[in-house]
Amino acid sequence: MSPKKFKLVVLVSGRGSNLQAIIDSIKKNDLQAEISLVISNVNHAYAMERAHEHGLEVFFLNPKSYPDRNSYENILIEEILSKSVDLVCLAGYMQILGKNFIDAFSGRIINIHPSLLPAFPGLNAQKRALEHGARFSGCTVHFVNEEVDGGPIISQAVVPIFDDDNEASLSERILEQEHIIYPEAIRLILEGKLTISGRRTIHNK
Question: What residues are labeled active site?
Answer without folding.
Answer: 113
